[in-house]
Amino acid sequence: MAGITVEGVARSFGEVEAVRHASFSVAPRQVAGLIGPNGAGKTTLLLMLATLLAPDAGSIRIAGHDPVTEPRQVRARIGWMPDTLGSWPALTVRDALATSARMYGMSREAASARAAQLIDLVDLAPLADRPTRVLSRGQKQRLSLGRALVHDPEVLLLDEPASGLDPGARVALRDLVRRLAGQGRTVLVSSHVLAELEEMADTAVYVADGVTAAADAVAAAGRTARQWRLRALHPERLREALIAAGFGTVAHVDHLGAIVPLASEADAAQLLAHLVSVGVPVSSFAPAVGDLEHVFLDLNRAGAPPAASAPDPAARIDGEARP
Ligand SMILES: Nc1ncnc2c1ncn2[C@@H]1O[C@H](COP(=O)(O)OP(=O)(O)OP(=O)(O)O)[C@@H](O)[C@H]1O
């Protein structure tokens, strides 16, 4: 079975249960975001997938191979980008990449050609002949990504790849990751910057307290009410129309516009049509948080008191509150 499969995986460090129960799969051509609060177990999970830490229980398959019993096969197939790069400070970027390629068994010529390709791919040409110790954090991230790709791996495990990257480099990273997945690779990428994952990932694995969320919990979290941000050329008219439509108690209005909880896209469409029909010059109407962030916040709310439910715009707009 290609891609990544994880079933019932657990790992403790003494008393600390870093990963208690992880189960998920990622198929080839998919980019999956690995999402969870600090200390949730993401790095521990990635280390187990990368053969660098043995699970206490459960099973893992990477491109059909078991990292515990077949580490060599797994290492030949994964590109691993850790959250901090240990580099050889005295080697140049070019030599660092060529040395990595040599370690994968390439000839001197092939390693040097591969290093040149990777320097272009991760946009490090101006620094190719500088020692890696002079690289900035973002440049080191790019070198780390290049190194992860040296042997053309079919599965990529990227731990916080965008940290330290400037906005231009983040866009380049996103495009590169999408392109690599488009070539048939499987990508698992952890990040705290959900807006960024939103544009990169097809799917997400949510982990909290060492436990991955089940698909039905994720689907249910995705269906809960979310906040929408509305703006109008005349904020006062927007405010009056929301009050008249019965949203006065739930809408939060500030100088940027209004934040309104809505249960579904259908409700959003209905409210927008209503506002336009009563003459509010709406200039912007969009979810205030992306899909991943919405699910993340909702899953993390588990245990907290339930969020105030969104009003039903049909009842408010079509009922007695209709202006
Ligand atoms: N080597 C270790 N020894 C003891 N405890 C550890 C070790 N590695 C991780 N832990 C603990 O396991 C838990 C999970 O850590 P992990 O680094 O996997 O979380 P994470 O989701 O990657 O966090 P972050 O988002 O902050 O990077 C934490 O409570 C951490 O303190």
From TrEMBL:
Q: Which InterPro entries match?
A: AAA+_ATPase (IPR003593), ABC_transporter-like_ATP-bd (IPR003439), P-loop_NTPase (IPR027417)
Question: Could you tell me the keywords of this UniProt record?
Answer: ATP-binding, Nucleotide-binding, Transport
- Annotated ranges, domain ABC transporter: 4-234
Name the residue ranges with Low complexity bias.
Answer: 304-314
Question: The organism sits in which domain of life?
Answer: Bacteria
Q: Tell me the Pfam families matching this sequence.
A: ABC_tran
A molecular function (GO) term: ATP hydrolysis activity
Where are the stretches annotated Disordered?
304-323
Segments crossing the lipid bilayer: none
- Into which family does the record put it? Belongs to the ABC transporter superfamily.
The name under which this protein is listed is: ABC transporter ATP-binding protein
Recorded source organism is Agromyces mariniharenae
